[in-house]
Amino acid sequence: MMSESVAVILAAGQSRRMKTKLAKVMHEVCGRPMLSYVVDACRTAGVGKIIIVVGYGKEQIVERFGGCSDIVFSEQAEQKGTGHAVMCCKEHLAGFSGQVLILCGDAPLVRSEMIATLMEQHLADKAAVTLATTVMDDPFGYGRIARDSDGNIQGIVEHNDCSEEQLGITEINPGYFCFDNKVLLEVLDEIKPDNAKGEYYLTDALHIALAKGYKATAVTAVAAEDAMGVNNRVQLSEASSIMRHRILALLMDNGVTIVDPGNTWIDNRVVIGQDTVIEPFTYIHGATCIGKNCRIGPFGYLRDAAIEDGTERKN
After folding, report:
1. What is the model's pTM?
2. Cβ-based burial of 51 (10 A; exposed 0-12, middle 13-18, buried ≥19)
């Protein structure tokens, strides 16, 4: 099943709010570019081919990911919306008959389990398009998921277009789509830039599919925390904090003692053996491998290091 899946990752944006010359998706979260997490989540979920849509800073992205056999690039020379970004992938999607995932490259908190659930639900429902949605206590600013009295999805209503009743909807669209590729290619041709920005919106693909009578479903599979995209440096810091706690929790689940998680920073790439103790105020970065029964810190600093079993290292 999963080998018949292609992922399109949108990574062409500049993000003026980041105030940067670096491609937005190349900003790091716990030592790795945001885009790396999205790519890894797709691979872990079993996606066979990944199309990265590049634009601003494309050379940086191609240099970092260009050596991967499962990745191809599609250029969006002029950023004219999310729908337009997917249109730029038509050459790579031609002749494909499986399912196409569409994800954002600036959402590093995405989980492979969610992607797998989205694809499985899409196939189980025999849908033309499936959304993974989120329920939020405060959905301000997000597009709301409109459903009928039977729970069938009717579309996405952008926040500014919501009625008073719709503003009370807490199920929102975080931007994860799964399309039947034949339907996707059909509806892409009908998207029009009929909006204030003059852009082609991917959400219109859903509405066109519904208008044509195609089946659309939505599965509430995204935790509110995971739905976070990064649009500025504050959100980058928040995503890094969430990811840092995930990394530490996984290490502790695998038998590593972290004495004070609030004052410990460990890179996503670090490998640590069972029964090793990490003391407070320790910073471990890069491709570091620490053996079993070690003690690192307090005030330890390691970068791209190899530490043998039983080692004690304070700095």
Report:
1. 0.92
2. buried
Nearest to 64 by CA among 30, 106, 36, 89: 36
Which residues are CB-contacts of 134 (< 8 A; sequence separation ≥ 6)?
171, 172, 173, 174, 220, 222, 223, 224, 226, 227
Prior bond to 280 cis, omega within 30? no
Residue 3 has pLDDT above 70, yes or no: no
Give the C-alpha separation, 19 to 22, whole Å: 9
DSSP states of 189-211: TT----STT----THHHHHHHHH
Spell out a b/e string for 272-288, using b for 16 or more CB atoms within 10 Å of the CB, else e. bbeebbbbeebebbeeb
Structure tokens at 89: 């992938």
Length of the chain: 315
Report pLDDT digits (tens) over 64-116: 999 999 999 999 999 899 999 999 999 999 989 999 999 999 999 999 999 99
In sign, the C-alpha dihedral spanning 283, 61, 91, 106 is: positive
Radius of gyration of the chain (CA): 21
Q: Which residues sit opposite 179 in a β-bridge? A: 100, 129
Fill in the DSSP letter of residue 21.
S
SS3 61: helix
Domains and CATH numbers, the chain: 2-227 (3.90.550.10), 254-313 (2.160.10.10)
Give residue for tokens 């504050």: 234
For residues 15 and 24, is the Cβ–Cβ distance under 8 A? yes
Return all residues near 67 (Cβ < 8 A) that are at least 6 apart.
none
Distance CA(255)–CA(261), nearest Å, equals 14
Compute the distance between CA of residue 109 and CA of residue 229 in angstroms, rounded to an integer: 8
Instruction: Check residue 16 and give left, alpha or beta (phi > 0: left; psi -120 to 50: alpha).
Output: alpha
